[in-house]
Amino acid sequence: MDPMSSCLGFTSAGVPRMLRGGPLVNRQCSNRLIPRHGIVMGARKEKKEDANSGFYKNTVNLPSTNFSQRANAVKTEPEIQKFWADSKTYEKLSSENPREVYSLHDGPPYANGDIHMGHALNKVLKDFINRYQLLQGKKATLIPGWDCHGLPIELKVLQSLKSKERKDLTPSALRKKAKEFALKTIESQKASFQRLGVWASWDTPYLTLNPEYEAAQIEVFGKMFLEGYIYRGKKPVHWSPSSRTALAEAELEYPDEHISRSIYAAFSIVDADKSKNELVKKHSDALSVAVWTTTPWTLPANRAVAVNPAIVYALVELEGRVLIVAKDLVEAVGHKLEKDLVVIGEVTGNDLAGLHYEHPIQDGLKCKILIGGDYITTESGTGLVHTAPGHGQEDYIVGMREGLEIFSPVDNAGRFTDEFCEGSFAGLSVLDEGNQAIIDHVSKRDVLLLEEKYNHKYPYDWRTKKPTIFRATEQWFASVEGFRDQALEAVRGVQWTPEAGEKRIFNMIEGRNDWCISRQRTWGVPIPVFYDGDGEPVLNQQIISRVAEVVSE
């Protein structure tokens, strides 16, 4: 037998010993002893001898391939993508596949910066779906889009300018810069998505800044207005002092770590002697309602205290006062005040409704105790709710029902106006020094019972990461009341994957309030409305059609 053949003809027991470097002593191979270190080590030593170069390598029967042993993705990925582009692979499959058309709708990202992991996840998952449908023989398409309007882009432009440039910037100049920024960002994001390997119709995207797209939005707005789904009104909305604009619910974040300065306060009842309840009448000289609020700055806008007719209220003695507190909260309130509250009697919410109290801020103003709703509970606070219709949604509903003033003495920057207390608080930020000034004021008036920090979820502007406020302003709203049932029926007709998505969307639509669609900003699609000399809106089909025509040009 050839010496080399006998060298490779190891027994089944001998092979693993050799592979693990076992001591195969006195085994001859071409008149050489295999070292005790094993065949691999032996091969390394032989490498030094030119005459035997590759000696052991040639004895191993391994497959041969031209496939690279390393990914080298930096080099190979662009080559593969260039091959796809040159071959028009996506275009051919999406147009020539034998089965039906499959359209994947692309929710557009904001054109306000580089892509992040959220963008990548979104587009890659869509690409998974589209490629699968292409493999199934369908004409699968993905038309990419970009949201080119709104506050995110406007803020990016403003942040890129120096202080003097921002001050001298006209609205038309800002819109021009915003458009340039959006288009530049689109090209950058598109290149990134293509580098990720996403297949889409990149040469024909939809852009919300295209004139025909803007005109279509105006036409839809007009149709909704004429059918009664859009209206103008003054009501409290989420307002961002940092962005100086109204925000929709979807533009908010609710961090857990927000700390408010909450207060317990006592509002003195001024006409308890006229009550039909003998207990209330008996203590008329010392009677006060106890309220709790996490927004002391809203006290100037207070126009009522709301009670729940289903709650039993207790009269308790506290240092010369007789406070009215929900019976179930007496112990909790006493613990907060570090006082033993002695209950001297009980009344109902109906017994209190109709009485009046002295306003905690403004001299001479008397406000009413009235029936609220189920939002008044005994889970926290006092069971009586400070009501400011200009600064809260439930407050607004009660205020409209009772004919209360929708008062909101706060400007666009979140500062007090001069509409109360002869302007002594004007210019103070309601979230900072203005809040402290109100606390100090009620303390001097002997209204304050307790101030404490309160940790809770609170709405923040998702762009500036700063707290928002509720503020009543004139805004345009889209009402869902007219088509809520149709929308819910449409949800039921969708095949959902995963099925949990149906419940989430259904609940969101079912509980959706009217949507504030107006923004106090420069870069966006204009609301096609004009105003007469009295400030009333003028809007009809002729105006809508003409504005859409001009915008589309």
Automatic annotation (TrEMBL):
- Domain Aminoacyl-tRNA synthetase class Ia stretches: 80-546
Q: Which Gene3D superfamilies match?
A: HUPs, Valyl/Leucyl/Isoleucyl-tRNA synthetase, editing domain
- One GO molecular function term? isoleucine-tRNA ligase activity
Q: Does the keyword Protein biosynthesis apply?
A: yes
Can you cite an annotated GO cellular component?
A: mitochondrion
- Keyword hit for Nucleotide-binding: yes
**Keywords carried by this UniProt record:** Aminoacyl-tRNA synthetase, ATP-binding, Ligase, Nucleotide-binding, Protein biosynthesis
The similarity annotation says: Belongs to the class-I aminoacyl-tRNA synthetase family.
The protein's organism comes out as Rhodosorus marinus
Question: Know the name of this protein?
Answer: isoleucine--tRNA ligase
Per UniProt, the enzyme's principal EC class comes to ligase
The alphabetized list of GO BP terms reads: isoleucyl-tRNA aminoacylation; mitochondrial translation
Which EC number applies? Answer: 6.1.1.5
